[in-house]
């Protein structure tokens, strides 16, 4: 792992806020995933990729853009590993490395469709709060 | 003044790596009363014990301090050495410098001063120790076994064969337990009932065994060797001595739509019922909740048709009081409720069943007479999916499952898949697994047989979803982690290997027996390795799955172990009692009753006694401790407002001396 990769991994782990060593490789996450077929690195592989420091591969993967964010894997994981949050973390890391592709709080009201239910906004912010 | 010897143990490097033991011994020499101090590699070894014996002779020691491991480990060893060399065993104090010192510190700078403090504390206490004498209590030569499954049956038979009386209390109406519900047993494929029922009959016929079925332990008091137990024998509404077990009542009973618990609710039973043909005793019970006579006062058909006039609605519950010397707890297990696993279709489709339900379907005494059919339409399944680890191996916060591996599922799933292929020619079995865990004699070979000879399809991966299809099939959606691909199977039946858990009845029972249970309600042993069948409460033992997940051979072996421990207790004519009991000081006691109110064992009573205080004669109400009931917990000593109550061996003065030495 390069020092840069290590930095990114720490960043991902901060967003993720879980423990990849809890994973027992049962595959419940992949079995529950509606986008499994479209993914190149499968949800159950994410914890071991992070543990082994293969961060670049994760950041290049198709998976982070195919994940629907439905959280079925988070909900059903018997070990509390939350693979979906790990995918979120990698995606966030990629987006933030590109820079500039984020909103400031004052920009949000102008860009949000007034028809959007407030509940949706709250739930999105909650999910992405880190 | 005492003549104290201090012995500091290295415990190999366990203590010596983080405590400078020679410094501790050197420091001990300056403590009041200490006439000899030494350190040695292993104090518990024969050479170490000889060292103590020699020092007692050479220096005329009257008290001994051993700085070593926890007193739970070797206090008894060192007390024995003292006793054999003419020093009262209660003049020995242990300073725990291993578990409470060397193991929790990383370096000598922290470990050594703390070890010295602990040594000083023990010296301060031993200076005030007084010789104590153990009392004696008789032993009731009768054992109680709670639970009538294979664990309880085996324990009772083993105790009875040693010549002691045993009573079995079973809450169900028949003994046999879970093993009676199983079809075949792995890895030999012996018929479960065929090997169990002869043992059940043996229990019924054994002159030393009494059976209380449909009964529960209501109250337990007393102590090791002398337990007083109240057993609630619930009314069967059928006289056992008259009933011949002919079963006419069952055929005529009009209340027929009650879910059959023995068959895990897969079919119905009548209100008056015998769960299976080999039941012991073979006498029905009237289920008062569902019986038309008990609900409305009408019906009474069973009483009319009974050829031996055994049915009697007037029989009342009965409480039996008995004394026991030893108690063995063998309350067994149950399978967890699988309704929480909605994504796997349990409770949604009738064809998604638990492994124990599948055992009943495979069993010749089951609802289908041993024909494997789908519960929904009675058709023979040609394709069956088994899912392992349902609710096992979850993280502690998981709301649906248990943290442990249930241990038996890998083997019974292999068995069930083999049996399925035997029953239904051409059937295809698939097993979704996380890991296949089959350690044991001929166990892995058995699992390989399923794969190699029966072509059972083992898929490494979990199942995400089971969906019932309109054509009656079940669509199983999972992944194959080895081939890295999605798996979608349309199958006829799904069997879930649900986690096992201790029978829920253990919780109230553990309270009655003051037993300790872990986070999963399994009983805690007195020591995980060296006292595996003894409970922390003296005189109580355990056998079978109440202690942890295990299969039948392990259960039977543990039952034998528990029986030997119980017999070893019953074989004694007298038991030595702990002399460290509470003792009130008559001059300080004001008879306020505070101590009696906090005593959990009912050991304190009051007497009116004439005392002479400063020349004045008066009658006072004074506390009195029954030493055979007192467990030495010390609750009374801290509750007593006037400081009159002392625990022998742990007197208030001794505790204060210890505190003073820590605070110096």
Please explain how this structure is put together.
The complex is a heterodimer of chains A (130) and B (664). Chain A is 54% helix and 0% strand. The model of chain A has no long low-confidence stretch (mean pLDDT 87). The longest helix of chain A is centred in the last third of the chain and has 16 residues. Chain A has one domain: Fumarate Reductase Iron-sulfur Protein, Chain B, domain 2, CATH 1.10.1060. Chain A is globular. Chain A is mainly alpha-helical. In chain A, helix 1 packs across helix 7. Chain B is of the alpha/beta class and 664 residues long. Chain B folds into 5 domains: 124 residues, Rossmann fold (3-Layer(aba) Sandwich); 176 residues, FAD/NAD(P)-binding domain, CATH 3.50.50.60; 58 residues, no CATH class; 166 residues, FAD/NAD(P)-binding domain (3-Layer(bba) Sandwich), CATH 3.50.50; 66 residues, Alpha-Beta Plaits, CATH 3.30.70. In chain B, strands 10-7-6-18-31 form a 5-stranded parallel sheet. In chain B, strands 20-27-21-22-23 form a 5-stranded parallel sheet. A 4-stranded parallel sheet of chain B has the order 2-1-3-4, with helices on both faces. In chain B, strand 11 and strand 12 form a beta hairpin. The model of chain B has no long low-confidence stretch (mean pLDDT 95). At the A-B interface, helix 2 of A face strand 24 and strand 25 of B.
Q: Helix count of chain A?
A: 9
CATH class of chain A: Mainly Alpha
Q: How is the quaternary structure best described?
A: heterodimer
The CATH topology of the largest domain in chain B is: FAD/NAD(P)-binding domain
Helix share bin of chain B: 25-40%
- Could you tell me the radius of gyration of chain A in angstroms? 15 Å
Number of strands of chain B: 36
**Which blocks of ≥5 consecutive residues of chain A have pLDDT under 50?**
none
Number of domains of chain A: 1
Give the total of domains of chain B: 5
Strand order in the largest sheet of chain B: 10-7-6-18-31
> What is the overall shape of chain B?
globular
In percent, how much strand structure appears in the residues of chain A? under 5%
CATH class of the largest domain in chain B: Alpha Beta
Overall pLDDT level of chain A: 87
Q: What is the straight-line distance between the termini of chain B? A: 21 Å
* Proportion of residues in helical segments of chain A: 40-55%
Looking at this structure, what is the CATH superfamily of the largest domain in chain B?
FAD/NAD(P)-binding domain
């Amino acid at each position: 792992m390069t020092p840069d990769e290590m930095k990114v991994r720490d960043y991902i782990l901060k967003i993720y806020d879980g423990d990849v060593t809890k994973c027992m490789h049962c595959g419940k996450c992949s079995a529950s995933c509606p986008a499994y077929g479209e993914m190149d690195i499968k949800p159950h592989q994410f914890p071991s990729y992070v543990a082994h420091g293969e961060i670049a591969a994760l950041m290049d993967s198709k998976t982070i853009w195919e994940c629907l964010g439905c959280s079925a894997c988070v909900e059903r994981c018997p070990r509390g590993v939350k693979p979906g949050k790990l995918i979120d973390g990698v995606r966030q890391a990629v987006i933030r490395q590109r820079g500039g592709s984020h909103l400031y709080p004052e920009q949000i009201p102008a860009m949000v469709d007034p028809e959007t239910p407030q509940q949706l906004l709250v739930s999105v912010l909650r999910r992405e709060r880190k | 003044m005492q003549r104290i010897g201090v012995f500091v143990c290295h415990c190999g490097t366990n203590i010596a790596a983080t405590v400078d033991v020679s410094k501790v011994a050197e420091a001990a020499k300056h403590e009041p009363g200490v006439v000899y101090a030494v350190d040695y590699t292993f104090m518990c070894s024969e050479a170490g014990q000889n060292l103590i014996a020699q020092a007692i002779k050479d220096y005329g020691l009257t008290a001994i301090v051993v700085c070593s491991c926890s007193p739970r480990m070797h206090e008894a060893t060192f007390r024995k050495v003292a006793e054999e060399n003419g020093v009262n065993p209660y003049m020995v104090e242990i300073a725990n410098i291993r578990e409470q010192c060397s193991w929790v510190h990383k370096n000598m700078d922290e470990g050594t001063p703390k070890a010295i403090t602990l040594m000083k504390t023990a010296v301060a206490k031993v200076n005030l120790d007084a010789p104590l004498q153990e009392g004696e209590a008789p032993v009731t030569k009768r054992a109680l076994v709670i639970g009538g499954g294979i664990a309880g049956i085996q324990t009772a038979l083993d105790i009875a064969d040693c010549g002691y009386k045993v009573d079995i209390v079973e809450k169900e109406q028949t003994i046999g337990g879970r093993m009676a519900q199983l079809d075949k047993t792995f890895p030999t494929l012996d018929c479960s009932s065929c090997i169990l029922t002869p043992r059940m009959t043996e229990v019924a016929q054994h002159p030393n065994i009494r059976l209380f079925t449909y009964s529960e332990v209501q109250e337990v008091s007393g102590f090791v060797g002398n337990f007083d137990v109240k057993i609630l024998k619930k009314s069967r509404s059928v006289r056992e001595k008259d009933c011949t077990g002919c079963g006419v009542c069952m055929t005529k009973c009009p209340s027929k739509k009650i879910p059959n618990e023995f068959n895990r609710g897969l079919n119905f039973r009548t209100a008056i019922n015998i769960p299976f043909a080999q039941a012991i005793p073979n006498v029905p019970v009237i289920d008062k909740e569902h019986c038309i006579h008990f609900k409305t006062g009408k019906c009474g058909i069973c009483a009319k048709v009974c050829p031996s006039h055994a049915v009697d609605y007037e029989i009342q519950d009965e409480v039996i009081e008995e004394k026991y010397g030893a108690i063995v707890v063998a309350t067994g297990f149950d399978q967890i409720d699988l309704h929480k696993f909605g994504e796997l279709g349990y409770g949604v489709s009738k064809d998604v069943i638990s492994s124990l339900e599948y055992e009943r379907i495979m069993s010749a005494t089951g609802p289908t007479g041993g024909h494997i059919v789908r519960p929904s339409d009675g058709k023979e399944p040609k394709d069956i999916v088994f899912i392992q680890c349902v609710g096992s191996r979850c993280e502690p916060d998981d709301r649906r499952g248990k943290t442990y591996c249930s241990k038996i599922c890998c083997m019974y799933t292999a068995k069930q898949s083999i049996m399925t292929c035997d029953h239904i020619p051409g059937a295809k079995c698939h097993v979704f697994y996380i890991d296949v865990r089959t350690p044991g004699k001929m166990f892995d070979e058995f699992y390989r047989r399923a794969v190699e000879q029966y072509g059972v399809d083992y898929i490494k991966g979990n199942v995400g979803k089971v969906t019932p299809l309109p054509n009656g099939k079940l669509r199983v959606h999972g992944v194959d982690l080895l081939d890295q691909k999605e798996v979608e199977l349309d199958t006829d039946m799904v069997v879930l290997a649900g986690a096992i858990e201790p029978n829920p009845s253990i919780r109230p029972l553990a309270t009655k027996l003051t037993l300790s249970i872990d986070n999963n309600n399994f009983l805690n042993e007195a020591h995980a390795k060296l006292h595996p069948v003894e409970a922390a409460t003296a005189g109580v033992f355990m056998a079978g799955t109440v202690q942890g997940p295990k299969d039948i051979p392990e259960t039977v072996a543990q039952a034998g172990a528990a029986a030997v421990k119980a017999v070893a207790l019953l074989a004694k004519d007298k038991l030595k009692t702990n002399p460290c009991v509470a003792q009130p000081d008559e001059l300080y006691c004001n008879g306020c009753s505070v101590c009696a109110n906090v005593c959990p064992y009912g050991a304190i009573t009051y007497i009116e006694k004439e005392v002479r205080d400063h020349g004045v004669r008066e009658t006072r109400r004074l506390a009195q401790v029954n030493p055979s009931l007192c467990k030495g917990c010390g609750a009374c000593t801290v509750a007593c407002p006037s400081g009159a109550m002392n625990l022998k061996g742990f007197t208030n003065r001794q505790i204060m001396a210890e505190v003073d030495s820590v605070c110096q």
